[in-house]
Amino acid sequence: METNPEWLSVIVEVIGNLGFPIFVAWFLLQRMENKLDELVKAIQDLNHVFNNTNR
């Protein structure tokens, strides 16, 4: 299979253009997931405190 230099440059350009945005999206989703996990835990703790004070 022969590789065409034009085709190779197109592939490199696509990876260059899409790779960075995909990485940024992944990074932000990871950060958001951690924040959401912390928020869920805080809400559960708050619910536990409210349930114990209403008894």
Automatic annotation (TrEMBL):
InterPro entries: YvrJ. Pfam families: YvrJ. The keyword Membrane applies. The chain crosses the membrane at residues 6-29. Keywords: Membrane, Transmembrane, Transmembrane helix. This is YvrJ protein family protein. It comes from Carnobacterium iners.
